[in-house]
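User: I'm putting together notes for a lab meeting next week and I want to include a structural view of one of the chains we've been expressing. I don't have a solved structure, so I'd like a prediction I can at least talk through. The sequence is below, exactly as it appears in our construct file.
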Amino acid sequence: MRANPERPPAIEQLGAEPVPPDRRHGRPWSLFTLWFGANVQFATLSVGALSTSVFGLDFAPAVLAIATGTLLSSALVGLFSTRGPLTGVLQLIQSRVPFGRLGNLPSAAFTVVNGVGWCVVDSLLGIFILRDLTGLGFGPALAVMAVAQIAVAVVGYRLIHSVERALAVLLVVVFAVMSVYGFGEVRAQAPVAPADGWTAAFLLVVAVTGARVIGWSAYASDYSRYLPATSRPRRVFLAAGGGSAVAGVWIGSLGAALGTAGALDDPSGMVSDLLPGALGTVVLLSLLLSTLASTVIDLYSGAMAALVAGFTIPRWVSVLVVGGLGTALAWYAGHGDFAAQLNDFLLMTGYWLAPWAAVTIAAFWGRGRREPADPYDPAHRFGPGLPCVLLALAAEIPFMNQSLYTGPLAAGHPALGPFGLFVGFVVAGAAYTVLAGRRWPTPHDRTTQHPLVSDQLRSDA
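Assistant: Thanks for the context. Below is the predicted structure for the 461-residue chain, given as structure tokens.
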């Protein structure tokens, strides 16, 4: 008897291979609830709070900066999600087209790092909540987070969608109640002054907020690849991008409102100190669930990236490895300055992902697009994508402004620091458009196209 595509096995069996046509199911609307639920969470609230409590923007300009960064990056999530139904493959498999199989390895490695990094951030946020709710020590709270997060990611795609769909309804109610209190207590002015001026603070909030969401873009097709190939790209774009944008602007702005009250030393304290006892407990429990659900996405796609990089292990084993690394690093990071670590991590991810996103756009939608190589062809080792990203990274170095490294331009003119991400995006996109217009060594003349991918990729190009 043929398996029902609407009810795949309890534990997802597919890894980095394409989704067969008889396993395709679902509707684009599922992407709205997925990305809405993924963004209605504690990390979004905390990043919003950075804008006022750490960077020193007043509330109104903070909201404008949060909206700008969120809308720009959410558009990428929506755009890249449209490739999932067309191809049936993971986002990083598609990256082999402009990067090549070997040239794509740094992107796969960085996506693993991104998944591990967000596992660390969300684990720490969950520990803050568990500590406030139960009084658990750091070690036991970390163990609870690790088991819950890894368990859902091991089961896979269908359970992740189900969890996010259920949480989307719950979290709308919870955050609506929280918004009444949070926006009711907002102060027009930030508790601290911008260290490097208003312009630098505004651009930094745009960059950091955009970097938070752009991290999802490297995963976008992972959660739309099971949709039928007949799914309309416009609906996919609006569902995925809309869910991310609505939740990101709302919760980020709420975080900015809470940040006007003081420092971000204890993120859960922002919530528990604001709300009356029983309501505060309910909200913190809901935030804990949302944090778990968000981490699951990062673990799932981080594990998939490891498979794309060439590790020949089952998907669920890859989840255990990525989750284990994230848990170990969370133990180490839990004894540092959370706000500073979050800022550094967000900027670090943006420095790579902004050029990567620009190359992807140029390859599939820009003037640099052409007849694509087969992403499963072993002869397609290198494409122009990696040199373009490396060039963009070199262009970003003078603008880098983190506790780990400060570039010369950022050191002398701090207001220029946040421009690094935008410079990298423009440089990578322009370089790819130029290089892709030239004759780049490709295996088109000798390749055997993958039967599930080639026609869809060719027609889309």
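A couple of points you could mention at the meeting. The longest helix spans residues 277-308. The chain has 19 helices and no strands.

User: Perfect, that's what I needed.
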